[in-house]
C-alpha cells in the first residue's frame, strides 16, 4: 500500500496543482472519482492487464468507457497515466487528490457511529463541537452499530475517538488482563 501511495503521489499532486490553478477542484474530484470507479470494473481490469493492447489502445478504450465524464485535460491526464502504465493507480491518485483538496479547503469528512440513531439537533451540536476542535469545516455522516451498546465512535481522517461503551469495556478488559 505504501508503495502504491509513493507511485501515485506525484500524479495526484500534478492533477491537484492543475485543478487548483484553474479553479476546478470539485470538477477534477468528480472526474477522478469516475475514472477510479471504472478501473475497478472487471472488463476494465482485464483491459488494463491485456498484453496484446498497446498503451494507446488501453488509453483510448479507457476514455471511451468513461464517456463524457472526462474533460479534454482529464483525458490528457489519463493518456499520461496509460503511457507510464499507471492507470491502475487511479483509486490511490483519487484518494490523495481528495486529501489535498480537503486540506486546502480546511474541510474534513467525519463519520459518527452510534448505538442508536442520532437526531438532527444532536448531529448539529456534534458538528459544531468538532468544527471548533478540529479547526476545519466538518461534514458529518452518521451510522448505527448496535454492538457499541452506547456512546459514539468518531472517525475524522486518521483520528478516531472511541467514546463507546464497547470501547471502554475493551480498555477495562485489557487493563485487567495485564
From TrEMBL:
<dbReference type="InterPro" id="IPR000711">
    <property type="entry name" value="ATPase_OSCP/dsu"/>
</dbReference>
<keyword id="KW-0375">Hydrogen ion transport</keyword>
<keyword id="KW-0139">CF(1)</keyword>
<dbReference type="InterPro" id="IPR020781">
    <property type="entry name" value="ATPase_OSCP/d_CS"/>
</dbReference>
<keyword id="KW-0066">ATP synthesis</keyword>
<keyword id="KW-0406">Ion transport</keyword>
<dbReference type="InterPro" id="IPR026015">
    <property type="entry name" value="ATP_synth_OSCP/delta_N_sf"/>
</dbReference>
<comment type="similarity">
    <text>Belongs to the ATPase delta chain family.</text>
</comment>
<protein>
    <recommendedName>
        <fullName>ATP synthase subunit delta</fullName>
    </recommendedName>
</protein>
<keyword id="KW-0472">Membrane</keyword>
<comment type="function">
    <text>This protein is part of the stalk that links CF(0) to CF(1). It either transmits conformational changes from CF(0) to CF(1) or is implicated in proton conduction.</text>
</comment>
<comment type="function">
    <text>F(1)F(0) ATP synthase produces ATP from ADP in the presence of a proton or sodium gradient. F-type ATPases consist of two structural domains, F(1) containing the extramembraneous catalytic core and F(0) containing the membrane proton channel, linked together by a central stalk and a peripheral stalk. During catalysis, ATP synthesis in the catalytic domain of F(1) is coupled via a rotary mechanism of the central stalk subunits to proton translocation.</text>
</comment>
<keyword id="KW-1003">Cell membrane</keyword>
<keyword id="KW-0813">Transport</keyword>
<dbReference type="Pfam" id="PF00213">
    <property type="entry name" value="OSCP"/>
</dbReference>
Amino acid at each position: 500500500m505504501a508503495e502504491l501511495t509513493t507511485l501515485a503521489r506525484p500524479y495526484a499532486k500534478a492533477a491537484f496543482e492543475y485543478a487548483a490553478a484553474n479553479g476546478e477542484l470539485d470538477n477534477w474530484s468528480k472526474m477522478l472519482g469516475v475514472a477510479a470507479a471504472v478501473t475497478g470494473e472487471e472488463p476494465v481490469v482485464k483491459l488494463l492487464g491485456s498484453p496484446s493492447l498497446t498503451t494507446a489502445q488501453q488509453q483510448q478504450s479507457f476514455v471511451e468507457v468513461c464517456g463524457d465524464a472526462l474533460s479534454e485535460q482529464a483525458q490528457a491526464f489519463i493518456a499520461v497515466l496509460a503511457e507510464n502504465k499507471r492507470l491502475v493507480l487511479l483509486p490511490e491518485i483519487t484518494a490523495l487528490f481528495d486529501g489535498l483538496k480537503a486540506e486546502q479547503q480546511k474541510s474534513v469528512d467525519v463519520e459518527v457511529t452510534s448505538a442508536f440513531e442520532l437526531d438532527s439537533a444532536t448531529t448539529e451540536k456534534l458538528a459544531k463541537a468538532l468544527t471548533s476542535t478540529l479547526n476545519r469545516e466538518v461534514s458529518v455522516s452518521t451510522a448505527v452499530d448496535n454492538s457499541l451498546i452506547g456512546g459514539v465512535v468518531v472517525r475524522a481522517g486518521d483520528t478516531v475517538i472511541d467514546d463507546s461503551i464497547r470501547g471502554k469495556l475493551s480498555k477495562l478488559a485489557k487493563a485487567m488482563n495485564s
